[in-house]
Amino acid sequence: MISEDKKKYSEELSNSISYLENLGYNNIKADIEGYETPKSYHKKGSDIDITPDIVAEKEGRKHIFDLSLKSEKPKLLKSKWLFLNTLSQLKSYRFRLITTRGHYKFTNETVDAIHLDTVKLLKI
Length: 124
Hints:
3 helices, Trna Endonuclease, Chain: A, domain 1, alpha/beta, globular, five-stranded mixed sheet
């Protein structure tokens, strides 16, 4: 999710973190109060910072998770996902999208629009 939506969807983010903990992920970093913030990336030539919603480890491999929730700025969300997907491929991480009920259609349409067919969805 983009930074403008963080306050609006904070409950979904905390539910996602507890879901990942139950799946056995550890060393969780999240862009929410009470957790260490994941590393941010700055887009050169602009004032945009990209921070993954959740970064966790499982079985020695790093996973990057981003919440896929309806947004007012889908173009910014698409560019964030493309960047995180490219970063995860370069560093041999795993990139996953987490979505909740009511946001499945938006997520599928957005993923299809930017051709991210390799990204797995976690439906909570």
